[in-house]
Specification:
Mean pLDDT: 84
Structural class: mainly alpha
CATH topology of the largest domain: Four Helix Bundle (Hemerythrin (Met), subunit A)
Shape: globular
CATH architecture of the largest domain: Up-down Bundle
Number of helices: 10
Radius of gyration: 23 Å
Low-confidence stretches: 4-19
CATH class of the largest domain: Mainly Alpha
Number of strands: 5
Number of domains: 2
CATH superfamily of the largest domain: GntR ligand-binding domain-like
Oligomer: single chain
């Protein structure tokens, strides 16, 4: 006969005790949540990611978590070792430099596509985000805040390109590199003004459907930010 658990004045049999059910979510959703935690710096490069802890955190079973970690490994966001599990990728300086150079080339293609595929709604979004960046030009805004706003503009351009896969490649290949160089590229008013000029020129090129110019500026915003960051740490 099953034991009865006494809760207050109510007797409850074990089969009647309910726990919060695990949610049924996709591995892609779990992967995106992990990336969001990394981007918010709650998780840091080099941190271990334990399946059970992630399952408990997201209230899911371990199956989607395990698959999510494999997805992130394929995107080079994490590294999985036998018997040790998953660790968030930590880039060396050379790897970070290579990542920025590669993402610059890919983002140039994104900008070219945006010229031919953008809509008026896309232009309004890009215009709004560039205007927000202009308002952040003074030194009361932190370098990281300014840097994050440039990423928002880049994502708006990516949406205009209508190529989620290509934009995902840009995000993946430079994953981790912004933690090394990103904010350092905007530590002075001079660097910020140059970045703002680049993004304003990008907005004009996309508006006028000038694909060669947009592609060149797409590369330039990466190259200039990296050069400024290296100068800041020299």
């Amino acid at each position: 006969m099953p034991r009865v658990k006494q809760i207050g004045e109510i007797a409850i049999a074990p089969h009647e005790i309910r726990t919060t059910p695990r949610r049924r979510v996709s591995a892609e959703h779990v992967a995106s949540q992990v990336v969001a935690l990394i981007e918010s710096r709650e998780f840091q490069p080099g941190d271990r990611l334990r399946e059970q802890e992630l399952a408990d955190r997201f209230n899911v079973s371990r199956g989607p978590v395990r698959e999510a970690l494999r997805i992130l490994e394929a995107r080079s966001v994490v590294h999985i070792e036998p018997m040790r599990g998953a660790t968030i990728t930590r880039l060396s300086d050379d790897e970070a430099l290579d990542a920025v150079a590669s993402s610059a080339a890919l983002f140039g293609v994104v900008c070219r596509l945006a010229c031919t595929r953008r809509t008026d709604v896309d232009l309004e979004k890009i215009e709004s985000k560039v205007s927000q960046l202009e308002a952040m030009g003074d030194e009361t805004c932190s370098p990281r805040e300014f840097f994050l706003q440039t990423l928002r503009i880049g994502r708006a351009v990516g949406q205009a390109a209508r190529s989620p896969r290509l934009m995902q490649m840009v995000e993946d290949i430079r994953f981790g590199a912004p933690d090394y160089f990103g904010p350092l590229g905007f530590t002075s008013e001079k660097f910020r003004n140059e970045a703002l000029r680049n993004w304003k020129a990008m907005r004009v090129a996309i508006t006028e459907r000038d694909a060669p110019t947009a592609e060149a500026i797409g590369r330039k915003v990466h190259d200039d930010a990296l050069a400024a960051a290296l100068l800041a740490v020299a």
